[in-house]
Amino acid sequence: MDFTSDEGWHHPRIVPYQPLTLDPASMVFHYGQTVFEGLKAYRSNDGDIRLFRPEENFKRLNQSCDRLCIPNVNEEAMLDYLKELVKLDKEWIPTDSGTSLYIRPFVISTEATLDVSPSRTYTLMVILSPVGSFYKGGIDPVSIFVEDEYTRAAPGGTGNAKTAGNYSGAYKAQNRAADHQKAQVLWLDGVEKKYVEEVGSMNVFFKIDGEIHTPVLNGSILEGITRKSVIELLESEGMPVRERKISIDEVIAANESGNLQEVFGTGTAAVISPVGSLEYKGYDYVINDGAMGETASWLHETLVGIQTGELEDPLGWSVLVKG
Ligand code: PMP
């Protein structure tokens, strides 16, 4: 689908996967005016396809568009187009456990000019790819490196938009984590480097003294759809989640005193990812003996069950596309 100032968003179409031809001066190459989304579709044995909260993805796409000065898309029309697309590709969605179809909508600015100003033309594309189970050999808690040199986002920046620069800007820290044999980066806030923000491509939760806590959304944290779902699910079970500022010192102190029971990340790819260890300022802290905790296990089982249609969907999250 394309955008021009005259016609707005127009010409939605489904075409075979193929390379793109773009002018080398296309603004996206130079100024990174681009946003994306990521969601999954599951297919059950009866052939029905389930999209998990896709309207949330299109809402967030528009929030990202606003921040990057990209014109909004029609969220309802996008959902209709997506349904068509997944129906067409349903044979590509495996029905075996844990596998799904990954859906990547994205927008690029295409005007060919070296001027530094918002583009007047855009293209929105959606690519689809079958993905295997995230945890092939069972759930394995991840190791985390608390990044205290680079920051991912700052107040007023693009942290809560899903835009390319946030990810390329994170590579240095990811490499630093890998040098320390850690799988993921835990980001701190961009002002004091004191408050926990999020993990790589996941939001983060802490179970302290039996209560679940997560960093409050502050404009520099991505508003994860899995995060929102975890909060709603726990609240529906009578377990309110405390959204607040959480300092890394508080997390370390809670671990030292034996009050930190669990740490886990939430995101579309892994759904729930338990954290087994945390390195901060040269010290390695083991969490919950490096094992997955009961809350993370329950959340993983429940969310995956709802997404695949194996469990009831009490909060009405799945959008069913009849096979
Ligand atoms: N934070 C970042 C930076 C991410 O890229 C993602 C993945 N989209 C998340 C958090 C988790 O968001 P969601 O639950 O919507 O996948």
TrEMBL record:
Pathway: Amino-acid biosynthesis; L-leucine biosynthesis; L-leucine from 3-methyl-2-oxobutanoate: step 4/4; Amino-acid biosynthesis; L-isoleucine biosynthesis; L-isoleucine from 2-oxobutanoate: step 4/4; Amino-acid biosynthesis; L-valine biosynthesis; L-valine from pyruvate: step 4/4. Gene3D superfamilies: 3.30.470.10, D-amino Acid Aminotransferase, subunit A, domain 2. The modification N6-(pyridoxal phosphate)lysine is found at K162. It holds the Pfam family Aminotran_4. Keywords: Amino-acid biosynthesis, Aminotransferase, Branched-chain amino acid biosynthesis, Pyridoxal phosphate, Transferase. Its EC number is 2.6.1.42. NCBIfam families: ilvE_II (TIGR01123), PRK13357.1 (NF009897). PANTHER family: BRANCHED-CHAIN-AMINO-ACID AMINOTRANSFERASE (PTHR11825:SF44), SUBGROUP IIII AMINOTRANSFERASE (PTHR11825). This is Branched-chain-amino-acid aminotransferase.
